[in-house]
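Subject: Protein entry, chain in single-letter code together with its fold tokens

Area: Proteins and the way their chains fold up in space.

Attached in line: The record itself begins immediately under this heading.
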Amino acid sequence: MKFIKGFDKVTNVLTKIGGYIAAVTLLFNVVIVLANVILRIKGGSIVGTEEYISMGEVVLIFMALGYTQYSHGLVHVCFFMKKLPKLGPVIAWMLEQWVGVVIAALWIWQTIKRIPVVTQVTTALLIPYRPFYYVIAIGVGIYLVAQLFEACKSTAALFNAEIREDVVNNWPA
């Protein structure tokens, strides 16, 4: 139980940092679009607006991913879980979480593997893609921590009634 509480605190901090970065990026995207609209009314525009926005979306999506997982904002398909006998839903949930951990780990590995060979840049502003691969790896890393927390918590739920109750109460509807 002590491990889960400590892991929860670390996961909470990491996912909030990612969430704040995503929020600032969303604000940046809104400001750049608004500025571009105002400039278009006056007959001008910001060069590379689409590139700023698309690169901002990479930061936004991947930095928000861990926060969304931690706050149970991702979609889960679990309509069979309620039909399983006593510990069946907890076991099914645990397996789902561990599969997510494996997928996230593979995702990070493949992203990091590609970083050395990335040489592309955007068309108008020549923004290099490579730093955004680091953002993807960091964002999915934060997601992995959140997913690993859920996997450990759901595994502990098999052996601890208090944790099991918390896990069951926080299942998606």
